[in-house]
Amino acid sequence: MSYAYLFKYIIIGDTGVGKSCLLLQFTDKRFQPVHDLTIGVEFGARMITIDGKQIKLQIWDTAGQESFRSITRSYYRGAAGALLVYDITRRDTFNHLTTWLEDARQHSSSNMVIMLIGNKSDLEARREVKKEEGEAFAREHGLIFMETSAKTAANVEDAFIDTAKEIYEKIQEGVFDINNEANGIKIGPQHSPSSSGGSGGRPRPQADGGGCC
Amino acid sequence: MNYIKSFVKGTEDAMPSGAETVGRLCDRVSSSTLLDDRRDAVRALKSLSKKYRVEVGSQALPHLIEVLRSDSNDDEIIAYALETLFNLSTIDVDDEGDMVAQPETILTFIESFIAVTENVILALNMIEKDSFAARWAAVRLLTSLLRGKPNELQQIILIMPMGISRVMDLLAESREVIRNDALLALIELTRGNSNIQKIVAFENGFESIFNIIREEGSSDGGVVVEDCLLLLLHLLKSNTSNQQFFKEGSLIQHLTPFFDIDPESPWSAQKNANFHLMLKVIRTLVSPSNPSNMTSSCQLAMQHCLLLRKLSDLLMATGIPTDILTETINTVSELIRGCNENQQYFASVMAPWDPPRPALVVLLMSMVNAQQPFQLRCAVLYCFQCFLHKNAMGQSQIISTLLPSSLEPQDVSVGQLLCGGLFSVSDSLTNWLAATALSHALRSNNDAKHQLLRVQLATAPGNPPITLIRQITNIVHQTTFLQTRVGLLCLLCGWLTNCPVAVSHFLDNSTTVSFLLSQVAENGTDLEFVMHGVCALLLGICIIDNDGSVSQYTKESLIELIVARVGIERFCDALNCVPQHDIYTKALQKPQPSADEPDHLLLNHTFAKLFKTQEDVIIKTVSNLEDVKKEEEVKAAMKAHDSIVNEYKTLIREQDSKLEAFKGKCNKLEADLTSSASLLSERDAQVQQLKDQYNLLKLTQGTSGDETTAVMTKRIDDLNQQIIAKDNELKSCQQTISELKAQGDVKLSENPSADEKSQKDIISMQQELNRLSITLKEKEEELAKMTNASTSAVVQQADAASDALIAEKVAMQSQLADSKHKLDCAVVEKNQIKEENASLKQKLAEAENQIEELQKTASEHVAKYIESNSVCETIKKEQDDLLILLSDQEEKLSTYKKKLRGLGAEVSSDEGEDEYEGGDLNEEESETNNVNGEGA
């Protein structure tokens, strides 16, 4: 299971918006209709391909409950990507986005890619938050936006993969310091140093080259 | 400095003023405006902090906190303050190994320190100080606080933003002392707190640990490696999420290099400790108490990254300390437990002996060897048990080594070793281990149980061979070792469960039951009670899995015997006392056999589970003897009744099935019916359609086809008539001509050739006409026939049955098309005939022309005749006759002409007729002339 890069993700958002279901749909391709409260943090992983490169996603699914908030804060720093999830059928989960975003921005590395996700798009009849509102929020705060359904799997793949693409592009542009693992990015054991720097990236002295495995 | 020293000395001299001194120092720390002064005071407090813990602890804390808060720019004073706090919160031992202070004192201090969360935050902030002393002291203080009040500290640090991340960052510290103390802090921080464990894993904790292990020399490394492994163990133990992360992150393969050991390097105590921890880490990942999918995926991963191979090599290597060897066996056991791929690999491992022997055999040799350490022997049993767990193939292979067919005397087999162990007379533990091992080969495998019944043993020379089960029973009776007896009884319990054949073999020995009953009835020591309980269980199994084939000991008679000899109550008490025993609860806890001392190894995990499931069933069965008896009576009475009922039942069942079959048939038929009905209606519709089509066709045929044929036939008839008329005309013409010819023959000689020619022409014409008329007739007939045939066929077909209609229609249509075609042909033919007719008319006209020519010649003859009139007076009479005849002919010709004209042929006008007549006359004249000429 060799990979070119490893990206760490976190999934954040209010309780019951479907964070664990998104993860389960992405890693196991199934849907769990019963809401089982996440305790602390749960872990999942999957391999994807971007630009012909194998990329391993390590995803930490956090508990949405307020009581776990302090624990989940510990995960911001080491993540390269965050999926900020709200429930389109519950306005309050949308209203809390600002708090989540502040929390994330405060504790994470400034380069963390945040994808805003309006989940439960299958429940159109019970919709309380318009798609346009989500788009506007994302535009205002510089996030990528997508509406998904963990139940029907609509856009779930895209949500995870598009985030990875964004991170990948940032690596290519040299924005991320890939040698600092605290950024949530790791170069795979098979990755040769010549390609790791990226075409436009700063040439870095690879004193400890290959020591990342 | 001197001042302080003298001051300290002074306090030491005046013993009771310790508290005073501390008080004065605290005053200085709080009131002095000079940093140097404060620094000195804190340093003094630090040096006093070990000796006067209580005093410093009770008075200095707020002042030290204040220093941390306000003097954080001075690394030195911070370091002193932190060190003081560290001293106050650490349990120290002096040179003699005695505790310097009471743990309660330290705990009290720690409690007062962490009572204000901000204090902890302040201390933790100091680990970010660049100063070595400050950072180091902060880390050590953290560790001590965690040791004193772990849960509280963990909660505070967990909630603190970046709390754990900051500690994690210290693992990358280049100053090894700090890094090593950070490891200790993390060990305390992660102890029993899965949330912190997960965050450490998230912060690349595993990778950092493996990096340090590698840097520190792996298994040959020092205490730092041990600390790393302990932290690793904390991160993985009972934390499924981290185990999954560990497995998903392909980190298992990082364990393998640890076992690349240098055979030359000595087994130091540190190496021993490192190995123990590493083996524990591995066992944590494949523990039987983990979720089974987790365990099995880790087992496979460890096989694939060659870890299992490395461990198996270690098993067979020489010079390994016994405790490491024992733990390695236990680790391999759990690595192969219930995992077929790994079990197969293990079965193939050979010991590097001469000749090579399977590792399993070598291990079992240690197990049945009383000289080997107890724990090692237990480990081998565990390994054997894990090898056979969910491995039916392995079980039957083991059993087969006991069967006579496969005995190879030179080779030591598993079967031989187990048998030898079972009947060893010197060591009861050997008996117990062998019996338990054998019971694992039978577990949940009825085939193996049956096979084992076949095993016969050679006893003393001259005596007949004896079955294994009989021999075991004999030893149970005879042995004086409790452990041997219990081991063999447990083996029998496992063997007999769910195997009535084995029960009947067992009961075949008449003394068995009374022996067991006597045991149940006896009093004894604590451990003997356990044995009595096992006897009771065995009796119970004999009742439950009894098929009644041994008439002396049927289900009921056994219960009756229990009632008569010991009583139900006593029997149940014997059973009940087993679960109350520690040995039982310990065995039930986990699969690995364990006991504090060899004598206490009586029950194994598998047996305990069996006991748990069977106990209730047996008590229920036995205590309901009256019910059972009554039941039996009723059963007997009911049996007859039952048989009748059964008969009826079968009858009903048969009828039911028949009914079902019929119903099915009926349904099928109904379905068939509906389908055929629909088919029929479809057909009907088709027929109707075809009929309509037919009618339509008939109609069109009637109106168009029939009409045209009728018109055609009419026309043909007309033509025929015309032809006939023409024929007649021709005939008459011919006649006239022949007559004329005859006349000419008689009279004329001057123009024979022309006459002949015309005659010939006429004849040929006539022939042709005849031929045409014949063909015409034929066609006519054909046509008539055809129309007849088609109409009659069509009518017939129309009358025919409806199911043939489609085909008929097609045939009809084709026939119709045929007839139409033929009709067309006929029309074409008719046209041809018309053409022919026209040509005939032409020919006729030609003939007329010829006739005209002839007339001309005849007129010439007439002229000649007039000229020779005078000469030919004699023939005038004849000529008159001829004239009369000619006139007759003329009449006929005129009628002929008229007819021809009626037919539409172009015939000369009346004038022409006149001329014709005149011509005729002339001709006649010429003829006469000719005759005359001839005559002349």
TrEMBL record, chain A:
It comes from the Eukaryota. Residues 183-213 are annotated as: Disordered. InterPro entries: P-loop_NTPase, Rab_GTPases_membrane_traffic, Small_GTP-bd, Small_GTPase. SUPFAM superfamilies: P-loop containing nucleoside triphosphate hydrolases. Signal peptide: none annotated. The keyword Transcription does not apply. Keywords: GTP-binding, Nucleotide-binding. SMART domains: RAB, RAN, RAS, RHO. Residues 188-206 have a biased composition (Low complexity). NCBIfam families: small_GTP. Belongs to the small GTPase superfamily. Rab family. This is Ras-related protein Rab-2A.
From TrEMBL, chain B:
It comes from the Eukaryota. Residues 716-789 form a coiled coil. PROSITE patterns: ARM_REPEAT (PS50176). InterPro entries: ARM-like, ARM-type_fold, Armadillo, P115_Arm_rpt, Uso1_p115_C, Vesicle_P115, Vesicle_Uso1_P115_head. It is found in: Cytoplasm; Golgi apparatus membrane. Residues 900-936 are annotated as: Disordered. Residues 800-918 form the Uso1/p115-like vesicle tethering protein C-terminal domain. Residues 341-621 form the Vesicle tethering protein Uso1/P115-like head domain. ARM repeats lie at residues 59-89. SUPFAM superfamilies: ARM repeat. Keywords: Coiled coil, Cytoplasm, Golgi apparatus, Membrane, Repeat. Belongs to the VDP/USO1/EDE1 family. This is General vesicular transport factor p115.
